[in-house]
From TrEMBL:
Domain of life according to the entry: Bacteria
Protein name: Phage protein, HK97 gp10 family
Length: 119
């Protein structure tokens, strides 16, 4: 049995992983930047770890070659030996941005599929 147009659909489906990766990488970069902005707002001012007064400037994100984003929250986010209390600005920043990150990634996948088949 032959399906009319199956070859065309298979060609489009073979292009799907590349489009999804491109769109999701962009969404992950945006989410990483948003996480950095949120952490910079939530970081407590005062009691500087190194005495230079620039704790907000030490929070930054780096996008890796595989598309993932590594966020460095600076020296104030580190848990020192024996003192395992909650990180006062890292965990709230992660929990606030988690839902938006998941939604942004889902929209990126949907957008890639729609672009492939509609455009």
């Amino acid at each position: 049995m032959t399906v009319i147009g199956a070859d065309r659909v298979m060609r489009k489906l073979s292009q799907l992983p590349d489009r999804i990766k491109k769109n999701v990488d962009r969404a992950v970069k945006t989410s990483g930047d948003e996480l950095v902005r949120t952490a910079k707002v939530l970081i407590p001012v005062g009691k500087d770890a190194h005495g230079d007064g620039h704790e907000r400037d030490k929070i930054h994100a780096t996008q890796n070659a595989d598309g993932s984003v590594l966020v460095d929250f600076g020296p104030k986010s580190k848990v020192i030996e024996g003192d395992r209390g909650p990180r006062p600005f890292v965990n709230p920043a992660l929990s606030v941005t988690r839902k938006r990150h998941k939604s942004r990634a889902k929209r990126a996948v949907n957008k890639a599929v729609k672009e492939l088949f509609n455009g």
